[in-house]
Amino acid sequence: MHIEVDSHTHTVASGHAYSTLAENVQAAAARGIKLLAITDHGPAMPGAPHFWFFKNMRVIPRIMHGVGILRGIEANIVNFKGELDIDHDTRRHLDIVLASLHEPIITPATKTLHTDGVIQAMASGHIDVFAHGGNPAFPIDIEEVAKAAARYKVLVEINNSSFTTSRPGSEKNCAALAEAVGRHNGLLTFGSDAHIADKVGVFAECLAFIKNLGFPEKQVINGSGRSFLHFLQTKNKPADLSELESLFPG
Fold first, then answer.
1. 54, 103, 173, 226 - which has most CB atoms within 10 Å?
2. Which residues contact residue 214 at a Cβ distance below 8 angstroms, ignoring those fewer than 6 apart?
């Protein structure tokens, strides 16, 4: 299976990543990535960029070195009401909004509270992807989250870094989450969560993971750049996102 979209990457703007946007794009082009999401951390994360960084992403060309650019954010779920650290005016300029739970922003509590926060974020209509949901620091009711993701048309991320350098102990939760998504006819997306260009578009662990699970490839939406773009276009995104259709002629 070839993956055409990397839906989760970071640049130096996040404050704890090590490559520039241009370096990430070059790495994506070399690995055959058609769409690259630039999803630096939301403003609540220590060291993250100011909200003007996200509003000004319109200056980034739609296509660089043959790679389509998705202007995005990894927003922080800041409370168990599912609220995010970006407002509507900022969000409406973006192509893709990931949401996740991070210890520097919200103190781990109970499975019920974590689940409530995630599901309310999904129900708000403000997010497109629930990121690294297998994190053992934030246990969730996997069945309820998978059902909500299918209901509210939110992609569930399987995060390659969760199998390598981040969030140790995620594998069991990721497997349960993927299986639940499959049962409820939801969709997965793979994110490299690259914090350095060398990891952009690298999904070896994700691919081995779903092969081992026997997860249907057709439910991994970022295997197809065209399908991923169409998914975003159904969610009231900026009009100029259509410029990326030129990458998928015919």
1. 54
2. none
